[in-house]
Specification:
mainly alpha; 2 domains; 9 helices; about 60% helix; elongated; endonuclease activity; RNA-directed DNA polymerase activity; endonuclease
C-alpha cells in the first residue's frame, strides 16, 4: 500500500487514524455491500487491518503485542464490523425500492431450472441477512425505523 511511508513517519496518531479512515478503509471495503462475507474473508480483512495498525504504531510482528492492545492505542474501528453495517444498510435500501430496478431483481432472482450441488453450499448474499433478520427480511426492511434498530 502506497501510504506506508506516511504511517512510518513520526506523525500524530490522530492524523494517521484520520488518513486510515478516509483513504485506506474505503479502499479495503470497496463494494462490501455486495459481498457474501465468509469466515475466511473476515479473517483476511482482519489480518490486513491488524498488519496496517502495527505499521501505524511501528510495532514489529515478532514483538508479539496483542491486537486488543494495538486497537486500544489506534482507536480504529473494525473493518469487518463496518462491512457488515454497510451490507445491512444496503439491504434495507434495496428492499425499499419501489420501481422494478434490476438491482432488486438480481437479489431476489432464484433459478428454478438449476439445482445446487451436493454438500455444503456456498454462502449467498441473502444468507447472512436472513440469519440476522429472519426469512422475511424484505417486509421488515420496508419499515425504516424497525430496520435500523
Amino acid at each position: 500500500w502506497s501510504l506506508k511511508h506516511v504511517f512510518k513517519a513520526p506523525l500524530n496518531m490522530e492524523i494517521k487514524k484520520r488518513i486510515f479512515d478516509t483513504s485506506i478503509a474505503p479502499c479495503l471495503l470497496y463494494g462490501a455491500q455486495t459481498w457474501s462475507l465468509t469466515k475466511k474473508n473476515e479473517q483476511r480483512l482482519r489480518c490486513t487491518q491488524h498488519a496496517m495498525e502495527r505499521s501505524l504504531l511501528g510495532i514489529k510482528k515478532r514483538e508479539r503485542v496483542r491486537t486488543t492492545v494495538i486497537r486500544m492505542k489506534t482507536l480504529i474501528t473494525d473493518v469487518v464490523t463496518t462491512a457488515k453495517k454497510m451490507k445491512w444498510k444496503w439491504a434495507g435500501h434495496l428492499c425499499r425500492f419501489e420501481d422494478g430496478r434490476w438491482t432488486r431483481s438480481c437479489v431476489e432472482w432464484c433459478p428454478f431450472d438449476r439445482k445446487r450441488r451436493r454438500g455444503r453450499q456456498f454462502t449467498r448474499w441473502r444468507d447472512e441477512i436472513k440469519d440476522v433478520a429472519g426469512i422475511n427480511f424484505s417486509t421488515r426492511a420496508k419499515i425504516r425505523e424497525e430496520w435500523n434498530t
